[in-house]
Amino acid sequence: MTTPFILGTSTVPVYGRVVDSHTRCFHYHTELDIIAIKFRCCGDYYPCYQCHDEATREHHEPMRWAPHELDHAKVVLCGQCYSELTFRQYAGGPSASCIRCSAGFNPKCALHYHIYFDMGSAKAE
Q: Domain limits at 31?
């Protein structure tokens, strides 16, 4: 496991190849790449699946969050205000932004939902 990166005033450690205090990483570092995802398999936050794979490859495979967990489990960390959000809070609004601080998130992250979340019949609304 890699050494955690402690973000600004947050007490939540983020693992992986983090490059700044807003959870951007070596792999994804645009202005809008400011979230970290809690992986169900280990309970640790990583900026992306590639950071998780690099850090845990020899220890475990990633597990997706089940559909019934998407409403209540805190699975996303905003890299601007450091609020922990449920999947529904993160992806359920009309725009890709934090419900607490209104920071914009990368809408292209939706292309990777299937890696982190078992959507089942549930959809981000």
A: 5-116
Cβ neighbour number for residue 123 with a 10 Å cutoff: 10
Q: What is the C-alpha separation between 13 and 26, in angstroms, rounded?
A: 17
Under 8 Å CB-to-CB from 74, ≥6 apart: which residues?
A: 38, 84, 85, 86
Instruction: Check whether 115 has a pLDDT greater than 80.
Output: yes
| Residue 122: inside a domain | no
Q: What is the pTM of this model?
A: 0.87
> What's the pLDDT tens digit per position in 28-43?
999 999 999 999 999 9
* Count of domains for the chain: 1
